[in-house]
Amino acid sequence: MTDLVSVLVRELARDGVRQASGVVGAGNFLAVAGLIRHGVDYVAARHEGGAMAMADAYYRATGETAVCATTHGAGLSNSATALSEAVKHRSSVAVICGDAPTGGPRPFDMNTAGFADAIGARAVRVTAGEPVRRTAPRALALARDGDGPVMVCLASAACSGEGEPAVVSEPVRRPACQPAEVDAVLHRLATARRPLVLAGLGAWRSGAAKVLQDLAARVGGLLTTTAMATGLFGDSRWSIGVCGGFASPVAADLIGQADLEIEADATDAAIALLDAIDAAELVRTDWRDVAEPMLAGVGWAQEPYTDVSTTERIDPRTLSLELAGILPAERTVVLDGGHFIAWPFMYWSMPDPAATIFIGSAFQTIGLGFAGAVGAAAGRADRLTVVALGDGGALMGLADPGDADPFPSFGPCRCLRRCRLRIRGAPLRPRRGRSPDDRVPRHGFRRGGRRVRGPGRHGTHRRRPFGAARMVRGRHAGHAGTRLQDRSRGGRAIPGGACGRTRIGKRGDGRARDRQP
């Protein structure tokens, strides 16, 4: 097994893997040691789900393949939710995991192939030493082909090099753009008067942003993106921002006026369509000229609202606008799942889609935000990492913030309570009770923090390791807002985790501060 793993991790490092995260166990400790020995940066997580989310977020922030290392059995099953999220997002991650011996499973083993099939991941079972030199590059090629994570399963009894050869699936080849598809769009463009070009995450991954802007300019159309592609068109004057539920009222009005929506997430398709338009000599529409007076009002920051902040809570719209002016423009924003997610999308600009890591959206899960922020900070040290979470997701991910100690770019944390919602005009009122974050350990992270009660009373942002971690709670703008709580004064240090120490508060210190106005 030692020789097999040594060859595997050496080939992975040679093929460009630079970042790994995981939880060490009997099924993967040799792999982890080998990765570190070959110069791969490794983050020791506290939970396999967090390790998987870190690798996923690293890929989203950098576009580079990351490794998640888990042991066999329960170690692998712990990664199921985060791995499912990465599968549905089609993130480029190689999961190195322990597997049952070739002679048969042990009581604590699981059906790894069945597990991979259930969540839609591809699996590579490595059982013989010699083919690994070819298996590792091919496994990485699978992970990089755009179809999501690949599990590299290490059979624990393969050290002798005996057994069946490694099994590797072939990469999926996507068909090229067909002329009939281009002709169909060209026919619709000939009669369109208000075309709208919509770009998603695929356009970012394929590098199609520039050609899509050229396409919109050629037909006189406006530009918009999905939430996952926020920032794709930068500061283009013809971009109306995000479409869908996060669109501002002016943007939604313009989207409603469009009579043709063009979606092109592949560069070759956009180029083929642009060439066909030039060949057909289509006339440019005048929609840009008509819509230009409205474009100045695009964006939630331009929308007037009544500030409902009180002496105890701040309106989340006001808080979002204040933070937008404080946080640096070059930032990575990691969003957990939950009802609070509208505020960052509505009020914060993003430099490019890699700066928006909405982790949990593909699988509709929560609790991966803290871990995702660690992965994003590891991948983009040049940008301040900001994480926005709901109270439930923050509580689920409490094990992960301690893993951020090595990354100075890990910055503010904004934690919002569940919003009060309206569904088709009918209020949905959650059962009232003690706020969950009143039960959060108040001194567990060695981080600064403040309570925000109103605009202008949040102090000045200070960049330092893990920043001034802001734990915020709030409710929907129509009912009340948010507070920040200090969690880092005093206390003694105790060992905690693989990446440093955890600080706990002096008895009574946190309770006394909470009673202060």
TrEMBL record:
<feature type="compositionally biased region" description="Basic residues">
    <location>
        <begin position="442"/>
        <end position="465"/>
    </location>
</feature>
<protein>
    <submittedName>
        <fullName>Uncharacterized protein</fullName>
    </submittedName>
</protein>
<feature type="compositionally biased region" description="Basic and acidic residues">
    <location>
        <begin position="506"/>
        <end position="517"/>
    </location>
</feature>
<feature type="domain" description="Thiamine pyrophosphate enzyme N-terminal TPP-binding">
    <location>
        <begin position="5"/>
        <end position="103"/>
    </location>
</feature>
<dbReference type="InterPro" id="IPR029035">
    <property type="entry name" value="DHS-like_NAD/FAD-binding_dom"/>
</dbReference>
<dbReference type="InterPro" id="IPR012001">
    <property type="entry name" value="Thiamin_PyroP_enz_TPP-bd_dom"/>
</dbReference>
<comment type="similarity">
    <text>Belongs to the TPP enzyme family.</text>
</comment>
<dbReference type="InterPro" id="IPR012000">
    <property type="entry name" value="Thiamin_PyroP_enz_cen_dom"/>
</dbReference>
<dbReference type="InterPro" id="IPR045229">
    <property type="entry name" value="TPP_enz"/>
</dbReference>
<dbReference type="Pfam" id="PF02776">
    <property type="entry name" value="TPP_enzyme_N"/>
</dbReference>
<dbReference type="InterPro" id="IPR029061">
    <property type="entry name" value="THDP-binding"/>
</dbReference>
<feature type="region of interest" description="Disordered">
    <location>
        <begin position="427"/>
        <end position="517"/>
    </location>
</feature>
<feature type="domain" description="Thiamine pyrophosphate enzyme central">
    <location>
        <begin position="182"/>
        <end position="260"/>
    </location>
</feature>
<dbReference type="Pfam" id="PF00205">
    <property type="entry name" value="TPP_enzyme_M"/>
</dbReference>
